[in-house]
Structures
1.
Amino acid sequence: MEYTLHYLLMADHAMVQKKLFSDIRDMGLSLGQPKVLDYLKDRDGAVQKEIARGCHIEPASLSTILRGMEKSGLIIRRMQEDNRRNLKVYMTDRGRELGKEITKKFSEIEKKALTGFSEEEMEKLRSFLTKIYENLEE
């Protein structure tokens, strides 16, 4: 049976998510939180609007995710002195620690998913997926 491209993209994403949440279930993270930690690891102190855009999460959904992360001690939000309407989001030490674990898990899943791929095939795949992303980016 030959699968359509949209089915394969959707199914692969679902399988990565399922594997990730199976691996991190003991960390107490909810849906959306690993993605935010992954984003913040390279952009600590980002404003919520940037995080929502970078993680492809609706701003209202992000607010809920961040509220839960703040309660769990993973992040803190601080008002900017020059612009009180924008809150900057910073990871706490606990958030950074879990972020490192998430990065490790993503790497392990990626390694497993790409078993049997040559370096050239991996680069082509990355290039094709980047092109799809850019074509669909708004």
2.
Amino acid sequence: MRKFVEALKTLGEINRLRILKLLQERPAYVCEIASILDLSMATVSSHLSRLKYFGIVKDKREGVKIKYFLIEPEDPETNALVQFLKGVGEEWEIVKRDREKLKKIKLEDICKELKSE
């Protein structure tokens, strides 16, 4: 029960929920997510580490960039929570805006831009 409560707290945080909804569209790099959420890459990395701990995302290093993928958690309760969250919020304006930005983003421009900050 304790792990489920922690998963609820983790996914109840707005930026982590936005990340989950983004990754439903497609895998994304930390720099893309940071740009869309208007957060630092360190903050996004911290959020992603928390999601990774619960088996909600996995990562793949590609040179200096890390790409994150949404996965199905092995824990049945966490998986049920993730499946529920995948089904809600499709009409939320923030989710629509985030996904629109994800579609338009040019990886080479955004990652270069964030690197120079």
3.
Amino acid sequence: MPETLPMLTRVMRDPMASLEEIANVVGRDMDLTATLIRRCNSAMYRGAEPVETADEAMLRLGLDAVLEMVMTLVMKSMYRLPPEAGAELAGLWDHSLLVGILTRQLTQHMDVSRPISFTAGLLHDIGKVFFIKASTEEYVDVLRKARQRHRAVADLEEELLGTNHATIGGEMLSRWKLPANIVTGVWLHHHTELGGEQNPLARAIELADTISYVLGCGLSDQYARCQNSQAIQEILHLTPTELPRLIMNSLDEAEEVRRAIG
């Protein structure tokens, strides 16, 4: 588990949390400090004057945006994969980042905090990381077979490994004591038959995952499991004209975040 994750988890759970609770972590990490300042001075957030310190950046961005950025940087190191993973999972980080941003956009009408929905989307495929690090050769073979057979990876995982990355990811996030709604959202985003249809966050992740695949972001030649995107849009109270706007906003933000974090 990343060293700073317990602190981030406490902040996400506390509705009265303040910037001071993550200021110590930011202050100890020069790379994180520089990244926050770059993000704050980007076109998306820049005000009348550029900021020069982490404190100024945090005040301008606000708690939710700072928490998302810190979580992004903390978890990025988790997605460093062995060379043997090769092209099969080379785009996993870009895919996960876009799904995190899309999930937050798709759940804007829900009673769920912005950092919670973003983190759930960002970590939705963390089970693939655990698979590849536990048994690289075997899991790469599963990914190749899924591509050759034009099948969703989760289905081939079930057939060949007896479980799938959503289950593994949910189990590990539960052991790391992340908030229950993040754990449930990740666990159920490929398990609508187990109650995912009653979990709007899981459905939002499922739709965001599908959109990212359709856009070809990150994981080429992998296939989504989502069967009824129209029903999911209705569950999330999205209008037909709203979804294209959310997608464009998410793509712009994902590009801006990639520039900020390098």
4.
Amino acid sequence: MAEKLKITWKKSSIGYAQDQKDTIKALGLRKLNRTVLKPDNPAVRGMVYKVRHLLSVEEVNE
């Protein structure tokens, strides 16, 4: 497993369920096309999986 995940918000959450919008916010993404680094753990992977159609994800080894 990678050390961190580089998560980029690629598609608007307009028209999607509120729980998906909340998941985007919980990941720390506030604006479209912004990127955050998160630890690679099962909790973060679960959130990413839920909104995988809105994100771009890369594994980063530091």
